[in-house]
Every structure is written in structure tokens, then in C-alpha cells.
Amino acid sequence: MKILVLGIGGIGGFFGGFLQESGADVTFLVRPKRKALLIKNKLKIISPIGNLNLEPNLILSNELKPIYDIVLVSCKTYDLDQAMIDLKGVKGKGIIIPFLNGFTHMEKLDKEFGSENVIGGVAHISSTINNNGAIEHFSEFKKITFGDRKKHQSNDLVSFYNTCKRTKFDVAISEDITLDLWKKWVFIATVAGATTLFNCPLGEISNHVVGKKTLSDLYDECRSIAKFNGYIISDLETENVLKNIMTPGSLIKASMLRDIEKKGFTEHEEIFGDLIAEAEKFSFDCPILKACYLRMKIYKENLN
Predict the structure, then answer these.
(1) Fewer beta carbons within 10 angstroms: which end of the chain, N or C?
(2) Is 184 one of the annotated active-site residues of the chain?
(3) Does the pTM of the predicted model rise above 0.85?
């Protein structure tokens, strides 16, 4: 099985790196500048499950051919349009599995590559690229979940699952990947919203009673938007999520906050803006989520 990974950052680099370490046939699609750095410095991963120092197999977009069975897309949502241009060389073969935040990226990929070739994917991980170019993995989360939205799991998808089972990260095939995509959207909107609004890790927010209530109320707003769209997150699952994000002393930050700290672009439109648009379809007010969105719009306006 031949696997192509677009993006060699905190998600693609981590999961692609551990796939390569397990013996899988992995190629990373990169830009020329990134290729030069990786050839010089290799792919370094710092993780509680083991550090890696790999020589990745790299390819540029103009060298692509339709020979890959699985294509993992792990760019930022604001880079998706360029990513689809870069992937034109693989059209005609393979399953595309995007690990992007939000939901609207599925529509774009369906239009470009055909909905029958695009599988839903969710990545559960806290990771970033540090100042030295290495991927740093934080916390115990290290899982990818994927599945056919029509609930028909192809032989290639099952084969990819079995390939992932030989790695050090966790993997699951979903019975309802669209619901899982909404669950991730609700989760990341809550974590990204709270940590960017207060400019601190989750643990500092949870140190205060009002902080815990704000986290709970924000999650409830996002959960309600999912419910209006027909996707139910149970009370038990909600209780477990809130327990995890309110862990005392948690140093977890959303990647959006890390992007702010680097004075970079963020995915606030796709995570907050699109979710608010879904709420407005049902005339549902979500004041905390709107406050998070406003904070990010002001950040973008002042970004030099």
C-alpha cells in the first residue's frame, strides 16, 4: 500500500512519521523550501510514545503520479485551495482522507475529487512544530479516526486501518464519520475558543469557577448547533469531554493559540465563523462563540 501525505506538520508529520517508522510505504508532498530543510535536518518528532529521527521520502507537486492508494491531507484549512491544486497529479486513483478542522472542506474536496473518493477523517492530537523545526507532541492524545460517509468501508480503507494498527498511535474506523466530524468541530471550537479568548492553557481557565462555567457554556452552545443540524452528542459524552478539558493544571492549548503566539494565520473562519453560520440558519444565538470569533477577527485585523 502506497501512502501520500500532504503536509508534514504537527498532524501529517506525526502520523506519517510513525507510519514510516512502522515500515509503511510513505511519501510526503512538500514545497521546495520545506524539502531542502527536511533533507538537511531530517524529520524529527519529540513524543511521549518515542522520539523519531527519520529520512522522509519527499516529492514535489510537479512530480506526482496517480499511484497512491491513500492520500492523507493535513494542511491548514486556509491552505486547502492550494493543496487541491498541488494534488491534481494524483487524480484518478486512491482514497483521500482529510484531517482538517470544521466541515466545509469536505464540500470542496467532494467537488474536486468526487465524493466517492473522499473519506471523512478526524485527528485527535496536540502537537506543533517548534522553533527548531521538530514536531512536538503533547498529552496522551494520538489517534486518527476515519470512515466512509456512506458507511461502506472499502478493502483499501480496511487495509489502511490494518497498516495503522502496526504503528504506535491509535486508530479506529468510524461507523458514523459525519457525526464524528461534528463532535470534533464542537470540541475544537470549545478548546480553541476558550484558550484564544483568555490567551492561556485550559488549566488556567479551569482554576476558576467562572472559567469552568464558561467552558461548559461554550461547549453547550457548540453542541446545540450540532443538535440543530441533526447530530446528537450524548450527555454522558459531554460529561466526559468537559471532565477532560477541565483537568487541573492542564497545559493544553489549541493550535490556534500556538498560531497566535507565532503571529501566524489562523483557522478562525472555518472553526468559528462557519459554525456561527450554521447556528444562524436556526436563529440560534451563541454569544460566547461570537465573542471568540470577534477576538480572532480583531487579531487578524492587527496582524502585520
Answers:
(1) C
(2) yes
(3) yes
